[in-house]
Amino acid sequence: MKIATFILLVCLINSSYGIYTFSFNITIPPLSSWIPSLSSIPYLNSISSISGSSDSSAPAEPSERSESAIPPLSFVISNPDLTSVTIDLRSIQMRAEAFYKKISQTILEDATLSVPELVAKHGYPCETHTVVTPDGYILTMHRIPRGKTSHFKKRPVVFLQHGVLASSADWLISEPEKALGYILADAGYDVWLANNKYSKNHTSLSPDDGKFWNFSWHDIALYDTTTMIDYALSYARQEKLFYIGHSQGTTVSYVMCSEIPEYNRKIKAMFSLAPVAYMTDINSPILQFIARGQGQLGSVLKAIGAHEFLPHNRVLGIVGNVLCRDESITQILCTNSLFAVAGYSDKQMNTTLLPIIMRHTPAGSATKQFLHYAQGINSGEFRKWDYGSSGNVEHYGNDTPPKYQLEKVTTPVYLFYSKSDWLSGEKDVARLYMELKNVKGAFLIADDTFNHLDYLFGIQAPELVY
Ligand SMILES: *[C@@H]1O[C@H](CO)[C@@H](O)[C@H](O)[C@H]1NC(C)=O
Ligand SMILES: *[C@@H]1O[C@H](CO)[C@@H](O)[C@H](O)[C@H]1NC(C)=O
Ligand SMILES: *[C@@H]1O[C@H](CO)[C@@H](O)[C@H](O)[C@H]1NC(C)=O
Ligand SMILES: *[C@@H]1O[C@H](CO)[C@@H](O)[C@H](O)[C@H]1NC(C)=O
Asked: Using CA positions, which residue lies closest to atom 14 of ligand 4?
């Protein structure tokens, strides 16, 4: 009972509604005015603006999370054809409850475990290592030094770097036969799982401090990833490792190898799952939304106390709910920012795993990471943080930010992409393919419905990808 309640709370508090029933008016302009490729997604008569106000006249139960503590949300870009949608969070909550009642006890138990506990439960060894980055963040890495069954003497290091809103847990959520972390351990690798700044620890800053969240994936590449790679190599006494990145984990690999080319020598081969560098072919409504309202959203997020992306951000929860208003399960999914940003595929989604996924996501990310991607959507380029003209002159000596020099990525790269990935579009992957210097293979996943997160939890990920 306690567990179910906990998960439900995570699920709801994720979108920080408290337990009130709110109704929001959401204005929906014609799709075509927004982005043509979106019309290919059914039921997505999507959103370019939210004008929200909470209907606080109907508090369902007393709660510590008083509505007045949340600053009013006022965020309107444009209001053409007004269509009003009311979301009844009470009914979502009831459907969520019904859903969790059907989930087995084992899964609910797994959903309470930390990464080392989860790994140990499956019978694998798990170590926790701490590193400190040059910019002062204290990061926790997880290591599965060997598999359950393997007796390999020489175990090559493989380094797994996760995406935004994600963490080391993502490689370990399915059962051992299906989750990449375990599969690699059993195949004889020394598996190191990265965690970025989301470890939420710093030598001098507190996560409550806005400055803590002043980083983008550029910083994750230059500081976090380099530090973790060096640590893993030195600990395992090896010269080189295999790098597997998912989503933002691929972005940081390109930034790192182009900005600090000596890392090319430390990487034997790089496997990019759902590569993200250019962002012109993006179907994620929320990223589009952020890109369109970049300045405004930045200030809204700041106003509601967020340099960290989401923990108290109603915007995405609401957007997600509208996107997914047909099925109960999809509604639950879409209250989670990870799914709201990345989408999911019905065919590949194992809903049984939801409680475990919800336990570990969203892992903290900085608003700046999303805004940096949004800049890429708007500029069509893969380049450094845009400070605005005068800021750019000050930082870079030029009024536009410099592009990342992909031709400096000389380590062998393997790209894995799919047709219906919301965040890693075919066109963008093709451009990346052309610009990287040493692509050894580009693999289109043989399932047209395969989406961004299926690389991690997809029912057929082992057959189709690994
Ligand atoms: C939603 O829109 C309707 C019609 O425009 C209006 O009567 C109602 O007060 C609005 N509700 C909220 C919560 O803004
Ligand atoms: C879904 O996940 C559960 C728990 O790991 C597993 O037992 C089940 O076989 C999975 N279902 C499919 C279709 O892969
Ligand atoms: C932060 O890291 C320090 C040093 O490793 C550790 O002593 C402390 O417990 C950590 N704090 C949290 C909140 O994890
Ligand atoms: C964030 O960091 C950048 C340098 O990366 C600096 O120019 C900027 O002033 C910082 N902003 C805040 C709010 O600390």
From this structure: 211
237-266 residue pLDDT tens: 999 999 999 999 999 999 999 999 999 999
The span from the CA of 8 to the CA of 29, in Å, is: 32
| Residue extents of the structural domains in the chain | 2-102+286-342, 115-281+368-464
Please write the tens of the pLDDT for every residue from 168-208: 999 999 999 999 999 999 999 999 999 987 678 899 988 87
For residue 345, report the distance from its CA to the centre of ligand 4, in Å. Answer: 38
Please say if 452 is a catalytic residue. Answer: yes
CATH 3.40.50.1820 fits 115-281+368-464, yes or no: yes
| Nearest atom of ligand 1 to the alpha carbon of 82 | 5
Distances in Å between the Cα of 403 and the Cα atoms of 125, 144, 214, 398, 408 are 42, 36, 21, 12, 12
The number of the ligand 3 atom at minimal distance from the alpha carbon of 138 is 2
Alpha-carbon torsion angle 234, 240, 242, 248, nearest 10 = 70
User: Mean of the pLDDT values across residues 408-425?
Assistant: 92
Q: Tell whether omega for the bond before 355 is within 30 degrees of 0, i.e. cis.
A: no
Count Cβ atoms below 10 Å from residue 153 Cβ, excluding itself. 6
Q: Pick the catalytic residue from 199, 247, 258, 418.
A: 247
Bridge-based pairing state of the strands 241-246 and 127-132 = unpaired
Give the ligand whose atoms come closest to the C-alpha of residue 214.
4
Distance 309 CA to ligand 4 centre (A): 17
Distance from residue 353's CA to the centre of ligand 3 (Å): 30
Handedness of CA 384, 220, 458, 3 (dihedral sign): negative
Is 372 an annotated catalytic residue? no
